[in-house]
Amino acid sequence: MKEFKNIQNFIFDCDGVLYSDLEKVFGQVSKRMTSYISQKLNLDLKNAKKLQTDYFYKYNTSLNGLMIHHDINPNDFLKYVHDINLDFLEKDLSLREELIKLKAKKFVFTNGSHEHVANITKHLGINDLFDGSFDITDCNFIPKPSIEPYEKLLKKFDINPEETVFIEDIAKNLKPAKKLGMKTVWLINNEYWGKKDSDKEFIDYKIKNVSLFLKEIRLLKSD
């Protein structure tokens, strides 16, 4: 892990990385996506879900497909689908401690919205520990893994990719990061979409726990 010693910037995906129970959180978002599509396109829930899934696989976000084919208002969509209940989400004291002790800048990079990131991080008790976030609106709704949002993220926060690590649960989203010079870390999971391409060479490191990984880096940097 010595290659991580000089890392000055940590970029975290939001969903599935800052918290582990993806189904309880993103499951709600997914259901609201289905409901939104059903209402806007006058489809029953079964066909709305199919369209949602098809667009996700083809365009990397369901929203991207809806904008291309149905002229959906993206801000209206994002507001609706992220209106979820996170009362069950407990504060992550271990993650908070490691983020505080980590001597580096910290950013969140998501295909969701700033409001969703704020909601998640507030419930986790870590909302005051990031130097910035980059969401789908910051790149005119172009999602990861298109390379444009990665380039705009680096430019927005004046980040040197050679001093940066990106942590993701969706393996293929690490490919552009690696191409731009970042160190790449995949958070191991068994989600079909998450583990696709997880055997590729553009992944530098695989971890099971974000807090423990940050602790390893912290101890390494203190040597």
Characterization of the model:
With 223 residues, the protein is α/β, with parallel strands linked by helices. 47% of the residues lie in helices and 11% in strands. It contains 10 helices and 6 strands; from the N terminus they run βαααααβαβαβαβαβα. The chain has helices at 22-41, 45-59, 62-70, 74-81, 93-101, 114-124, 147-156, 175-179, 192-195, 210-222; strands at residues 9-12, 105-109, 132-134, 164-168, 183-187, 205-207. A 6-stranded parallel sheet has the order 3-2-1-4-5-6. Helix 1 packs across helix 2 (45-59). The longest helix has 20 residues, at 22-41. The protein is globular, with a radius of gyration of 17 Å.
Index terms:
223 residues, alpha/beta, six-stranded parallel sheet, 10 helices, 47% helix, globular
Category from helices, strands and their pairing: alpha/beta
Helix content: 40-55%
Rg, Cα atoms, Å: 17 Å
So how many helices? 10
Please describe the biggest sheet, giving its number of strands, its sense, and whether it closes into a barrel. 6 strands, parallel
Note poorly predicted spans. Answer: none
Give the termini distance in whole angstroms.
13 Å
Strand order of the largest sheet: 3-2-1-4-5-6
Query: What is the strand tally?
Result: 6
> What's the pLDDT, averaged over the residues?
96
Indicate the proportion of strand residues. Answer: 5-15%
Net shape? globular
H/E order of the elements? Answer: EHHHHHEHEHEHEHEH
